[in-house]
Amino acid sequence: MLENHKYEAVIGLEVHAQLLTKSKMFCRCPSDYLKAAPNTVVCPVCLAMPGVLPVINRQAVEYVIMTGLALNSKIAETTQFHRKNYPYPDLMKGYQISQYDIPIALGGSLSVDIDGKQKTIGITRVHLEEDVAKLHHYKVNNGENYSLIDVNRSGIALMETVSEPDMHSADEARKYLTELRSILQYLGVSTGNMEDGSFRCDANISIRPTNSKVLNTKVEIKNLNSIHSVYQALEFEKNRQIMLTEDGDTIVQETRGWDEEKEITFTQRTKENANDYRYIPEPDLPPIQISKDWIEQINLRLPELPTQKRNRLAKQYGLTTYDAALLTTSKGTADFFEESLKGTQQQSKDASTKAKASANWLLGDLAALLKESAIELDASYITPHNFGAFIEMIESGTINGPAAKTIFGEMFNSGKEPNAIAKDHNLTQINNVDLLDAAIEKVLQNNPPAIKDFAAGKASASQFLVGQVMKETRGRANPSLVNKILLDKLNSGDY
């Protein structure tokens, strides 16, 4: 990767999020189209038949207002839809119903953590529009290409959030996207899934001399289907523009695509300006009046947002800022964590200790198993209930570390309760002093050389003996208790 500190990147992001409305933006067609056969979730409005009229989805408007409030935006008293004209085959009407100069939400900000410091990234606008149809590209055996169109997606309520060009690295862009997606998930307005196209990003990037305030020619990058792809594309494009500048070449304002396999950007078309879209007010839709009472009602319904939850979890459960941040990145993970602590929290001697153990297992072993299996948390056999019971077994001393690993693996694969697994495989921890004493005596009798080594000052000898006791008890002995009893015996002078 090219390192050149003479230049800095100037990055702005346009994020399109499909809204979780029950129906499409301007018709009654259901918005859940992903599993439907092509061109089956359509109606005359979706297909742009002559004489049909759109009707505004009120829920979509409310979702944009919610997002604007969460981003500290100013909500417009009056907003209006426009026709955005461009001749693409995925646009059924020949224009897209969108918003231009009067968006629902204007301005605002979003804060992200950059190396332990909060950085504020400005929000330009949040507006509402309709999604377009989807083109499917195919290649036949003779090398010819053809495309088919699926209109199911056409008309889905789409929210666009435009940032100010306040980001100066691919890492900042990645953190901005992660935080914005979390906010939308917490609000319940979008799934935030980039894999199925519900959360899409176009990135604008230019370079300039470090510490300069001049904005230079920007390039837009499309076809970014993951946050990792956004990061990679911005890194590549920054370095490409630096090399062109260093060679004395001109950077052309254009739209470039991202090739996932080759990990390069490539030219798609010359970048359009607003005038090229020939925006006109949508004649079939009236302006929307947004009253203060309406805004206040929506504001009262706002849930706890990621930053608020992050701060509360750290304070309430004594978590580190880092762990609290990881837990709250996904609303599903944060909810799972808190749900797993219900009911059993009061039974634990130290609620904070249990919370930290839960966080460690959730962010460590469980996260690794989910990644390895390529499944989401809500699709796994691990539930808040059995996970909480599992943590309680650890905290109460019912099972030790090695047994916990075995039990957790089987829980993940089978969904069986941890107590049942421990019973079936005889994995409960031995805490009985008499039983442990007997096992220790047997180990001491069979290992005189280790006793001599300990007497000679070799501390590792005691760890060897502990290991032998664990082997004797098939891993079921309480290692802390074994270590205490063993050291008492070795230091007594009787051996």
Look at the structure and give the mean pLDDT. 92
Outline the biggest β-sheet. 10 strands, mixed
Beta-strand residue percentage: 15-25%
User: Helix/strand/pairing class, anyone?
Assistant: alpha+beta
Helical proportion, percent range: 25-40%
- Measured between the Cα atoms of the first and last residue, the distance is 63 Å
Q: Rough shape? A: elongated
How large is the count of helical segments? 15
Number of domains: 3
Identify low-pLDDT runs: 345-349
Radius of gyration: 30 Å
- What's the β-strand tally? 17
Write the layout of secondary structure elements.
Blueprint: E1 7-18, H1 58-70, E2 74-75, E3 78-79, E4 82-85, E5 95-98, E6 105-106, E7 109-114, E8 117-130, E9 134-139, E10 145-150, E11 157-163, H2 170-187, E12 199-209, E13 219-224, H3 227-246, E14 254-259, E15 264-270, E16 280-281, E17 288-289, H4 292-300, H5 306-317, H6 321-329, H7 331-341, H8 351-373, H9 384-395, H10 401-414, H11 418-424, H12 433-446, H13 448-455, H14 460-472, H15 479-491
Helix pairs in contact: 2-3, 5-6, 7-8, 7-9, 8-9, 12-14, 12-15, 13-14, 14-15
Task: Describe the structure in your own words.
- This protein is of the alpha+beta class and 495 residues long.
- The protein folds into 3 domains: 7-298, no CATH class; 306-424, no CATH class; 433-491, Orthogonal Bundle (Arc Repressor Mutant, subunit A).
- The chain contains 15 helices and 17 strands.
- The protein has helices at 58-70, 170-187, 227-246, 292-300, 306-317, 321-329, 331-341, 351-373, 384-395, 401-414, 418-424, 433-446, 448-455, 460-472, 479-491; strands spanning 7-18, 74-75, 78-79, 82-85, 95-98, 105-106, 109-114, 117-130, 134-139, 145-150, 157-163, 199-209, 219-224, 254-259, 264-270, 280-281, 288-289.
- The strands form 4 sheets. Strands 1, 2, 6, 7, 8, 11, 12, 13, 14 and 15 form a 10-stranded mixed sheet that branches. A 3-stranded antiparallel sheet has the order 5-4-16, with no helix packed on it. Strands 3-17 form a two-stranded antiparallel sheet.
- The protein starts with 6 loop residues before the first strand and ends with a helix.
- The model is unreliable at 345-349 (pLDDT under 50).
